[in-house]
Amino acid sequence: MDLIVNTWDGGTAGKICLSHAVFGLEPRVDLLQRVVRWQLARRQQGTHQSQSRAEVSCSGRKMHKQKGTGRARHASISTPQFRGGGKAHGPVFRKHTHNLPKKVRALGLCHALSAKMKTGSLVIIDALTISEAKTKVLCTGFARLGIENALLVSGKEIDVSFRRAVANIPNVDVLSVQGINVYDILHRGMLVLSREAVQALEARFK
What we know:
Order of helices and strands: EEHHHEHEHEHEH
Oligomer: single chain
Shape: elongated
Largest sheet: 6 strands, mixed
Radius of gyration: 27 Å
Distance between the termini: 16 Å
Number of strands: 6
Strand content: 5-15%
Helix content: 25-40%
Structural class: alpha/beta
Number of helices: 7
């Protein structure tokens, strides 16, 4: 599959042949869902916890005598129905992570790349570099290419001037090729890859 390589000034820098094994698969929604669920589960800290009846610090004496007062029978103020009492069946500290085979994760990334290719949301840029850290200059290049909501993926290192210029643009994220992941690809409308990023991805899944 051949795709045109664009430049920021609106021109072209030739064509690049994309690997069918990486960008030409038929996207599987179930596979993408598994990988995204695995990613989001790893982000959860799991530190949410409330005090149970046994953990609440309060007096353990009986509130009032059992009979003769006309009131309901209660043994302790730490019960859940009283303010300041323990919470019944509340959240407890736990880990949300679960295992997912490395081959499934790698295949999910290929399917995410293929999904962007199939929907025409994949753009190849010659290089994610800019001469000066000016957001206005970068916005002009985005307007030429029709980029509004996108994930930009550079090579091994992100150009410092480019990172500074794109920092003030909303709905645009920048990652190095090592940090590319399924969730960030699907989270944005377009995927913009540099020529170096394409070569690194194809070498990774060769």
